[in-house]
């Protein structure tokens, strides 16, 4: 009898271990739009009042060296989905880098992998990726979908009510939060989920985007000013940027005076605060559902924003203000004593998709180019074998974007003339924890910028022509070409 009891107990114990191993983690991927990396308390600017995001960071892991492969929305979002560099997927705004993702591309994205593995998949908010619409059907990848008035399930009465036409447009962030809670309220208990929540905030600063009660919080508040903010115009920028980059022009009437800067900063803070409240709702709901201990929450944005830094507005150019990402990982499966720290490893946005897949113990598609950093999170990664550089690109050209909007037919000729006229500011470069290098490679002669980040974290002193940095310049020039050739395959 004793032997029988021991055998039965051993079987039940092994069964418990087996079930625990099979229990897949839930994933919630939260992305904002244009939320600059340093506009959070946990990244050093408490005046933005991101209390709940700061709490997420304190209870999770906050990354200090995550970089976008490209600092503008559509191609950045495509990189997140596919785990591929812009040089590879080429899905952006302007010719010849305006390829639409195909069904084959999308069959190798993280939502596709999770859905095939039996997860309930959801997407809420701004999709913002160019696809072959007839091939890439949302219903093939998502069980729950709320994007621009298209719903899955299509007859979901709650979603229709959340997005009702008469609802105040100033509640755009609250709508996404409501849809997020509805997804969780309707989640079956016997199935894991992968939910992507993509807020329109903090993009734009129109009155229609400001949630009234939160606007009042920042109405008379004096916001901190980045050290590299430029009053007036920045005559030290390359001539091609001064003449043709829209961010240089927009700065003049958006952020070039202290009064203008304060107005913009308050408005971005307002929107960030509204998102912060949705993060609080998310964590509360996961706790109420009793699934927080088996859920991974990622918080980030799709690209940064200059806010007047370097005498620029908007984004895309390869300074850290636009190319560095806020990035927080909360993994409820990990004990509290092993969370709550800062991570300095160098991460590319191409790494997100393969890492999410790996954390769920699923197979990473061969087409993904990013590196799985889950072993950095669980502290088993030999960092001496980790990467030394990340590749970054800017292929957005306002002249080409305007030509596209106007439906110009001879677009290839327009592109050729733009390059031959020395009006191109397309650029690529590399970043590590000590240096930043990039080159406007279609300029004749090419224009190079090099920054010693260890001494000049705000990238205010270009040392590309400094004789003492020539060895570094040659090294990073070669590394840029090496990584570009590697990742464009």
Describe the model.
The chain is of the alpha/beta class and 489 residues long. The protein has a single domain, classed as Alkaline Phosphatase, subunit A (3-Layer(aba) Sandwich), CATH 3.40.720.10. It is built from 18 helices and 14 strands. The strands form 2 sheets. Strands 1, 2, 3, 4, 5, 6, 7, 8, 9 and 10 form a 10-stranded mixed β-sheet that branches. A 4-stranded antiparallel β-sheet has the order 11-12-13-14, covered by helices on one side. Helix 8 packs parallel to helix 12 and helix 9 crosses helix 12. The radius of gyration is 23 Å and the shape is globular. About 4% of the residues have low confidence.
Indicate the topology:
Layout lengths: L1 H21 L3 E7 L18 H9 L1 E7 L5 H10 L3 H4 L13 H4 L3 H7 L3 E6 L18 E4 L2 E3 L4 H6 L9 H14 L7 E6 L13 H7 L20 H6 L1 H9 L3 H31 L6 E7 L18 H4 E8 L9 E3 L3 E2 L3 H8 L14 H4 L12 E5 L3 H8 L5 H10 L6 E5 L3 E6 L6 E6 L17 H18 L2
Parallel strand pairs: 1-6, 1-7, 2-9, 2-10, 3-4, 3-6
Antiparallel strand pairs: 2-8, 4-5, 7-8, 11-12, 12-13, 13-14
């Amino acid at each position: 009898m004793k032997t029988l009891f021991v055998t039965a107990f051993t079987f039940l114990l092994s069964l418990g271990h087996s079930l625990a191993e099979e229990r897949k983690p839930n994933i919630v991927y939260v992305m904002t739009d244009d939320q600059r990396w340093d506009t959070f308390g946990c990244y050093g600017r408490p005046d933005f009042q991101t209390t709940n995001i700061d709490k997420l960071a304190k209870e999770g892991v906050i990354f200090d060296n995550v970089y976008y492969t490209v600092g503008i929305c559509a191609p950045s979002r495509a990189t997140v989905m596919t785990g591929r560099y812009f040089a590879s997927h080429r899905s952006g705004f302007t010719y010849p880098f305006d390829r639409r993702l195909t069904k084959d591309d999308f069959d190798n994205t993280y939502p596709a992998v999770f859905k095939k593995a039996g997860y309930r998949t959801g997407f809420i908010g701004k999709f913002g990726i160019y696809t072959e619409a007839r091939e890439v059907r949302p219903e093939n990848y998502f069980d729950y979908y709320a994007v621009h008035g298209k719903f899955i399930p299509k007859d979901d009465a709650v979603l229709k009510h959340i997005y009702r036409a008469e609802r105040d447009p100033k509640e755009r962030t609250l709508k996404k939060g409501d849809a997020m809670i509805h997804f969780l309220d309707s989640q079956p208990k016997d199935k894991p989920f992968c939910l992507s929540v993509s807020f329109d905030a903090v993009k734009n600063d129109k009155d229609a985007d400001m949630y009234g009660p939160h606007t009042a919080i920042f109405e008379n508040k004096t916001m901190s000013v980045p050290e590299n903010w430029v009053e007036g115009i920045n005559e030290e920028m390359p001539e091609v940027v001064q003449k043709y980059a829209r961010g240089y022009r927009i700065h003049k009437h958006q952020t070039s005076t202290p009064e203008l800067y304060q107005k913009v900063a308050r408005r971005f803070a307002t929107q960030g605060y509204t998102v912060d409240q949705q993060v609080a709702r998310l964590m509360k709901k996961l706790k109420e559902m009793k699934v927080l201990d088996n859920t991974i929450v990622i918080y980030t944005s799709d690209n940064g924003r200059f806010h007047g830094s370097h005498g620029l507005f908007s984004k895309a150019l390869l300074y850290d203000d636009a190319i560095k990402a806020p990035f927080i990982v909360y993994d409820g499966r990990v004990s509290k004593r092993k969370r709550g720290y800062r991570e300095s490893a160098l991460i590319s946005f191409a790494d997100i998709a393969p890492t999410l897949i790996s954390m769920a113990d699923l197979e990473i598609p061969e087409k993904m180019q990013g590196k799985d950093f889950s072993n950095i999170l669980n502290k088993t990664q030999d960092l001496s074998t980790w990467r030394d550089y990340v590749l970054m690109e800017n292929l957005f050209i306002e002249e080409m974007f305007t030509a596209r909007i106007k439906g110009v037919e001879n677009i290839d000729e327009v592109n050729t003339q733009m390059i031959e006229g020395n009006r191109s500011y397309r650029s690529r470069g590399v970043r590590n924890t000590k240096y930043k290098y990039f080159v406007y490679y279609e300029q004749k002669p090419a224009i190079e910028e090099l920054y010693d980040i260890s001494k000049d974290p705000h990238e205010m002193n270009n040392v590309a022509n400094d004789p003492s940095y020539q060895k570094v310049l040659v090294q990073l020039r070669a590394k840029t070409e090496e990584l570009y050739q590697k990742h464009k395959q």
